[in-house]
Every structure is written in C-alpha cells, then in structure tokens.
Amino acid sequence: MTTYRSPFPGLDAPASGPGGAPEGLKPIWIEHPDLEAMGRRGFRRFRNEFDREPEGIWMAPGRANLNGEHIDFLGGRCLPMALPYGTLVAAAPRTDGLLRMRTLEPTLDSGIVEVPVDSIVPGTPEGWTGYVAGALWALRIAAESHPELAVPENFGADLLIRSTLPVGGGLSSSAALECAAILAFVGMITGPRDLDDDTRAVLAHACMMAEVQVVGAATGGLDQTASLRSLPGHVLSLDCRDFSITHHPIAPLVEGHRLVGVDTSTPHWLGGDDFSSRRKDAEAAARFLGAERLRDLLPESPDAEDVEAVLARWDAADPRPADLDGRDVAGCRRRLRHALTEMLRSERIDALLRHGAPDSVPGGAPGELGRILTEGHASMRDDAEASFATADLIVETALAHSAAGARLIGGGFGGSVLALLPMNKVDAVVQAVDRAVLAEGLPRPRFLCIEASAPGAQLCRNCD
After folding, report:
1. What CATH number should be reported for the domain holding residue 57?
2. Which domain holds residue 187?
3. Is residue 17 part of a domain?
C-alpha cells in the first residue's frame, strides 16, 4: 500500500506538535490507487508467479457507510458508498479442481496456497483463503437457481491478490476480496460481459453466504451489496428487508465539506465473538418482542416516539435471561436501543438524500448529516459497545476542531472513523487528530480521501 502527500492544499505543512507529539511529522495519507498502472504490474507479476498469463484482472471496492452499522442483519436501512480503494484479483482458469492462491498483503503472504475445490465446506479453509474459496463454493450454490452462472466440472483457478484497503480497517476489505474473487470466477466461466443489477444482486448474496457459512462471520450483506451495486458519485440507500436499492447523488449532502476516513491502525475481525455476540443480543431482543426482524417493530416512516414506544414495551415486559436464550438482559436492551435508533438515523439521512434539508435546519444538509454521524458514534460507543479508545479520541478531537460530525464505521472493535470536515478545516482537523493520537502513544492513524466510486468490475483482460 502506498502513501502520499495530502490531496488538500496546505496539508503538508509540519505539525506544531502540542501535547508531547513529535514536531514536524506530517499526516499520512493513503493514495487513491492508479488502477491502470496496478493492472499492468499485476499482469506481469502473475506471469512471473504462475508461468502463464492471467485471463484478466478484476477489482472490487471497499465501502464507507454513512449509517447503518449492526442493522443490515436486522432488516434496517444502510447508506454505504463504494470507495476508490479495493482489492484486485488477477486470475486464470484451471481444469483440475484446484485453487492456487497468493496474496501480496505482507501480513498474510506465505506464498502460493493450494485448496482443492471439493474440500471447501463451512469452516474450511480457514484464514484469508476462506473468503476466496467461499466465493466459489457459494457461486456453485447460486448457480442451482441461476444456471447461467454454472461452474464447470473440475473448475479451478490460479489467483494473485493485491489490496489497496487497510486490512481490518472497517472498510470492508473482506467483502472486497470475496467480490473481486467471485467476479473473477464469473468472468472466467462466462466470458467478458456487463453484469446487470439482478446478476450483481445474486453475486452479492452469494458473497454474503460465503462469509457467513464458510468464514463464519455474522455479516448481513451490506458490504457485499455496496461493493457490487454502487454507482460513482452516489450513496446507495439499501433496504435490507428485501435488498432493494436506490442511488442518490452525494454532492448535495456534503456541499462545502469533505469526507475523510481515518484508519486507526487497529485491525478488527468480524469472525470473532465480540461482533457475533452483539448480533445474538439484538436477535434475542427481536424474538422476545415477537418480530422476525427488528425493523418490523417500527412503522414505514419512523420517528423518535416510535423508538421510545418499542423501548417502553420492552421495559414493561421486564424480560429475564431465560426469555432471551440466557443472554444478559441489560446488554440486549442496549443492542435493541442501538438498532432502533440506528434505523431512525438511516431514515433521516435517506430523507435528506431524497428531499434535502429544510431552510430551518442549522447548517443545511451537511450540518444535519454531521449531527447524525456524531449521534451514531455515541450509539456505537454506549449501546452497541463496539467502539474503542483510539476511535473515541479521534471523534472527540475532530469535533473539537470544527468537524461537522464523525463516527466509527464498520463492525467496530477496531477499524476506521468517518469524519465530515468543512473544506477550509481539513488541514487543521487532520493535523489535530494525528497529533492527539501520537501524544497518547497509540498506533499512528492514516487518512483516506473518501469519494463515492464505481462498483466491482473487470479491470482489464490484457493489461500489458
């Protein structure tokens, strides 16, 4: 992964270094990748690695989510956008039922890893190869109802993988890997073609099943949908009750502002117990209240009174652990509150995207979005209990230096912060955050220029 000087004027000035932080250090920015150049290098590297040419190179992006964390699996609305950062897969087909894979991510690279296709089952293989192998496993299942995606007998592949996303950075590096892999498999099987949204929806669902069943991460489809079904310059409004989507231009929502991602350098993994425990708490609360999905407890256009009514109903019922599959009652109520208020925040942003902000709203649409982002962080911290010290410090520092809003994004327990910054304050906020984290002796953050970008696709067939 490359780093570079800031894309914003003035950001290369030395930091003043209060609070014990070193003088003169400049914030670290992660460059938007030059995909054309990466394609050429990937083509040559594949040839050297596998002694033949790839059939093509495919890329799938990560995502940033304005709102909707921990609610995709509960039927809520999520508001992601695809990023210019993502994962590239160079691939060529095999006919011996073998996957041969290598990642160029230094922390994961152990050379070529071989996985027989017929050995892929839930839980196997483990580690990063499970995301790739799981995508092929899930594609076979999807092809049962979509024969145009049928996987030939003894199909296998050589794959070389390169990511421009921070691994475990809360920007969906795992979904980008699954989606790039499944696009490569489909491209090799069916040949070059444009994928319509219906096909992309099928592939997104297959990638979700790969992550849930093969990898064992309790995800709900948000990340894969954003990676495969977004549009450049648009926010994807995703209703997770039926996975219907609407695209909205992002420009009016952030007018005069810049979205900046802050990689906390604290990796997370959604296959761990922390994330799955939060999901189990929320699902136990839904079952106790008689709902298959928590979103069904709210009306189509909910408001704060509707949220309070559900919480009052919970309190009046006075559940016991035995009513919640043995789970902690207070914890389940906090997850319930997070999910309901997060759903309400999503509907508020969706309304801003559809109708704009009334003249009476302070700061217009960007001001309201900023307030919603900050409310969302407080909920991730206090009710989802998924935040952590570095993220809290970054949010607090950004807000203290004129950020319109900021929040933890991704599943939590590590990952990234998304901040909405006035254009003329980007310099000051980024430097202040960098200094504050350094002063606390925490891992150095890296900054990303967040722009709504294109969905996954084939990058090239002959990249030389």
Report:
1. 3.30.230.10
2. 33-248
3. no
DSSP string, 371-412: HHHHHHHHHHHHTS----HHHHHHHHHHHHTT-SEEEEESSS
What is residue 10's predicted lDDT score, i.e. its pLDDT? 39
Asked whether residue 220 falls in the same domain as residue 286, the answer is no
Bond into 299 cis (ω within 30): no
Q: Are 216 and 123 in contact (CB under 8 A)?
A: yes
Q: Note whether residue 377 is domain-resident.
A: yes
Residues 312 and 443 in one domain: yes
Question: Which residue do the tokens 């695809």 mark?
Answer: 82
Give tens-digit pLDDT for 342-355.
999 999 999 999 99
At 39 the pLDDT is 86
User: Of 221, 248, 275, which closes a domain?
Assistant: 248
C-alpha closest to that of 214 among 122, 110, 342: 122
Question: Does the annotation count 109 as an active-site position?
Answer: no
Strands 405-409 and 29-30: unpaired
Could you list the beta-strand ranges (E) of 104-182: 113-116, 156-163
Cα 350–Cα 364–Cα 304 angle in degrees, nearest 5: 50
Least confident of 38-47, 163-172, 209-218: 163-172
pTM above 0.85, yes or no: yes
pLDDT in tens, 197-215: 999 999 999 999 999 999 9
Question: Is the sign of the CA dihedral 253, 263, 203, 84 positive or negative?
Answer: positive
- Is residue 7 a part of any domain in this protein? no
Active-site pick, 12, 34, 51, 223:
223
State whether 230 and 363 are in the same domain: no
Instruction: Give the model confidence (pLDDT) of 50-67 as tens digits.
Output: 999 999 999 999 999 999
